[in-house]
Amino acid sequence: MGWSTTVIVPPDGDMTQYLASLRRLLERDDAIYYPTHGDPVLKPQALVRGLLTHRRMREAQILQLLGEGVSAIGDMVERLYVQTPRILHPAASRSVLAHLVALEQQGRVRQDAGHWVALA
């Protein structure tokens, strides 16, 4: 999309692969993107850097919430997506799950009885 990040939905969507794809795009010198949704992107490198920054920020927020003892995805969404219409919270939940799955693959979190826990 030319204006926003996409929602990554496990199990078909993989945050680790998505982020790797964005990093690969930074290696290219494309002058313009023609996304399937939205207007042409005239500054593709800036868009990709922004998407990566957003994902790093979201990951840090999730880890912070875990550190505060917020361990259920629904509770995380309530805290992270305050400005987002509630009708979009199910999609936000899938996005948070995608981040948690990626963090689990990195050995930084684990799931315990339906709740997520940060590992030291």
| Fraction of residues in H or I helices | 40-55%
Which regions contain 5 or more consecutive residues with pLDDT less than 50? none
**CA-based shape:** globular
Strand coverage percent = 5-15%
How many individual helices? 4
Main beta-sheet strand count, sense and barrel state: 2 strands, antiparallel
Average pLDDT level: 95
CATH architecture: Orthogonal Bundle
Order of helices and strands: HHHHEE
Strand order, biggest sheet? 1-2
The total number of structural domains is 1
What is the straight-line distance between the termini? 36 Å
CATH H level: which superfamily?
Winged helix-like DNA-binding domain superfamily/Winged helix DNA-binding domain
Estimated radius of gyration: 15 Å
CATH class: Mainly Alpha
**Total DSSP E strands:** 2
Indicate the CATH topology.
Arc Repressor Mutant, subunit A
**Coarse structural class:** mainly alpha
Task: Report on the architecture of this protein.
There is one protein chain. This protein has helices at about 15-25, 45-65, 75-80, 90-105; strands at about 110, 115-120. The protein starts with 14 loop residues before the first helix and ends with a strand. Strand 1 and strand 2 (about 115-120) form a beta hairpin. The chain has a single domain, classed as Orthogonal Bundle (Arc Repressor Mutant, subunit A). Strands 1-2 form a two-stranded antiparallel ribbon. With about 120 residues, it is mainly alpha-helical.
